[in-house]
């Protein structure tokens, strides 16, 4: 038998590259004020996850989580915008 993913509601996503790209990503500096070894993290209901430059930060309405670029590309596609009133498809 073959199965296909059910249609899923749209998600918001932003690709993260540096401190300040998304408010949910925090930089762990220890006692230093310097970004040490690129240690950026995001807290999720499942725990704290590392975020690397290029990762996507996905918000599905109930939670926020990081997603590696290759997995994001294989899982998500850009949602087509609805035509404005009076425009044809």
Summarize the structure.
This protein has 89 residues and is mostly beta strands.
Description:
With 89 residues, the chain is mainly β. The protein is built from one helix and six strands. It has one helix at residues 69-75; strands at 12-15, 25-27, 40-44, 47-51, 56-59, 64-67. The strands form two sheets. It has a three-stranded antiparallel β-sheet. A three-stranded antiparallel β-sheet has the order 2-3-4, with no helix packed on it. The longest helix is centred in the C-terminal third of the chain and has 7 residues, at 69-75. The termini are far apart. 12% of the residues are buried. Mean pLDDT is 78; it is low at 31-36.
Q: Taking strands numbered 1, 2, ... along the chain, how are they ordered across the largest sheet?
A: 1-5-6
Average pLDDT across residues? 78
Order of SSEs: EEEEEEH
Which descriptor suits the 3D outline? globular
Topology readout:
Layout: E1 12-15, E2 25-27, E3 40-44, E4 47-51, E5 56-59, E6 64-67, H1 69-75
Features:
89 residues, mainly beta, three-stranded antiparallel beta sheet, 8% helix, 28% strand
């Amino acid at each position: 038998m073959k199965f296909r993913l059910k249609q899923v509601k749209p998600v918001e996503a932003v690709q993260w590259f540096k401190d300040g790209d998304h408010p949910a990503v925090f930089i762990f500096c220890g006692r230093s004020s310097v970004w040490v070894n690129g240690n950026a993290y995001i807290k999720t209901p499942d725990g704290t996850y590392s975020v690397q430059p290029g990762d996507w930060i996905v918000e599905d309405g109930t939670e926020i989580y990081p997603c590696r670029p290759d997995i994001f590309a294989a899982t998500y596609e850009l949602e087509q915008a609805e035509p404005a009133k009076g425009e044809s498809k």
